[in-house]
Here is the input.
Amino acid sequence: MRIDLHTHSSVSDGTESPAELLATAASAGLDVVALTDHDTTAGWAAAEEARPPGLTVVPGMELSCRWFPAAAPPISVHLLAYLFDPGHPGLAEERSRLRAERLARGERIVAALAEAGYPVVWTDIVERSAGGVVGRPHVARALVEAGVVESVDHAFATLLHHRSPHYVPKADTEVLDGIRLVRAAGGVPVFAHGLATKRGRVVGDEAIAAMVAAGLLGVEVDHPDHDADERAHLRGLAGDLGLLTTGSSDYHGTNKTTPIAACTTAPDQLEALLAAGSGGTPFRD
Ligand code: AMP
Ligand code: FE
Ligand code: FE
Ligand code: ZN
Here is the structure.
């Protein structure tokens, strides 16, 4: 069994449609794949429709959250959520608030770049993110196509990283509220790439303990952005706190260099995750 529980389609900031993504998953030899677009369930229907025979699809999302440490600026935290009820009003409303927030903040990033002389236009970015889940990767692509930078990675390294003068933060969900909402909707909350220091500041163990008290059920241990020490630390914490552990690629099509199935989840951990979700069921034969 090969299981990848974290992927993005063009419904958010990946480059393949849900149907193309599932075809990629099948040809990579995956048995199970989760679709986890940022702050939306808009790809679920197409994924259910286009699912190749034999492939199991776990409907999910990645919720944009933040943790407020004592006396320090907020830390960005991504919360994977699986098998929740997409109709749960509180969670649906929060997803919609986040998408509106992305639009307002994306427009401000583009305005800052245009002001500094970079050839980016907001209407073009909106067109690229047809579903309304605008992210910095859409701006990165526009900068690549305009010849300003050579790759999406290069755009992040030079102009779009969170210390850039053109960066604008967004008002993400307070993570303990996000965890409670996902649980209220019958879903399984899993802390995504929680110790990826290469992405920026990360939370301490006390934050993870608080998340567990709020209802967190798992941590993503094997992720391309985690080094061996970070994985070992998370695996130890998961053992101490009784959390399930996942491994996933965080595939984004050609917006990142990581291939699908670059990291995978153990079958017993998938079983525990499926048993914990009561807001929906996987799409399968
Ligand atoms: P946003 O959601 O607008 O804050 O943008 C964050 C997204 O940008 C993440 O979900 C990744 O998909 C992408 N990203 C972040 N850093 C990089 C990078 N160095 N190269 C490519 N994509 C990145
Ligand atoms: Fe992303
Ligand atoms: Fe993420
Ligand atoms: Zn992701």
Summary: The chain has ten helices and eight strands. The longest helix spans residues 89-115.
